[in-house]
Amino acid sequence: MAGTGTSPSTVPLYDLRLEPEDIRAVMEVLESGWLTLGPRTRAFEAAFAEHLGVGHAVALSSCTAALHLAYLAAGVGPGDEVIVPAMTFAATAAAVIYCGGTPVFADLTGPHDLGLDPDDVERRITPRTKAVCVVHFAGYPAAVDRLRELCDAHGLALIEDAAHSPSAELDGRKLGTWGRAGAFSFFSNKILSCGEGGLLATDDEEVAALARSLRNHGMTSGTWARQTRETEGYDVVGLGFNYRLDEPRSALLLSRLARLEPEIERRRELTRAYRERLADVPGVLVPNDDASVARSSCYVMPILVEDDGRRDAVRARLRDTHGIQTSVFYPALHEFTEYRRRYGAQSLPHTERVARTEITIPLFAHLDTRTQDRVVGALQEALA
């Protein structure tokens, strides 16, 4: 079951396909009459924790909520700084501001590696720095091993924004498990998606307990616990939030989790095919290297146009002439109006170059070879 709403001749950037077992899983929840936080959510949390090899998984309403709670668990508050990449979605930095802290933007390693640059991070550490948040861009592992060493040496919390990387790894260890907490996204266009949803993963029992409490208004027990008489009442022990994930979404995630590994392997095959085909297209740079594909979740397929003045025209040509949807992952965060207003103009040359030249081309698990050839051919024509 696909749900893009595009015409048959359009090549979508992303295409969601649900299987009959996914529909049945959600229908069973609807028929049960219990829709809020409950047994399916617990089952999904246990399954995802096992998948990651981590002690605790706390399902939440969004990855933004996971980042917010991860920063709070790290003690981020007014006057504190968190170093974040500027090549990321707005939530990575916005969640720092929710805590009263200040995001400090750091640069990428370069156009061949879109991960956070540890050397630039180190230069930006001050006495006010409380944490570092690393994004595993497009599902490729950033230098989280070096960043972990850097954070340990300076007494900082390492937070992983693993929104792009639900099954990627470095040195045999899943991304999202290297730091104090990892934040995952289950938004509609993610590899493992349910519409809206997120998760905080951690090996720290105190972090997990705080996240479970704060996701549910700081209450000591939830509605399901009282429904099943695990508890008779509850106390409110903190100022929490409504960050719960509901049962239909948890059931959908649990069903789709069984296919996560084969779908990611298919994405890797498609990414390798793209890399091979794009190697012969002049004017295009493909970030990362061939070896890194095996460690990546291959969430999206980013390419860079070497001539930074042509990106928008190429995208328009792909859309209007060839019916191919593309996107930009991402505009430079520090150049958005809100962040310029708060923190003034900044210079991050690698980030700015990528933000002006990046095109995200179609990638999803059931993309076929013929459509890939169509995308590459259209790109070559648009650049000619």
Give an overview of the whole structure:
This protein has helices spanning 20-32, 39-52, 63-73, 91-98, 118-123, 144-154, 205-214, 223-227, 247-257, 260-278, 311-320, 337-343, 349-357, 369-383; strands at residues 56-60, 81-85, 102-106, 108-110, 113-116, 129-135, 157-161, 169-170, 173-174, 181-185, 198-202, 284-285, 301-305, 358-361. With 384 residues, it is of the alpha/beta class. The strands form four sheets. Strands 1-11-10-7-6-2-3 form a seven-stranded mixed sheet, with helices on both faces. A three-stranded antiparallel sheet has the order 12-13-14.
Outline of the structure:
The chain has 384 residues and is an alpha/beta fold. It contains 14 helices and 14 strands.
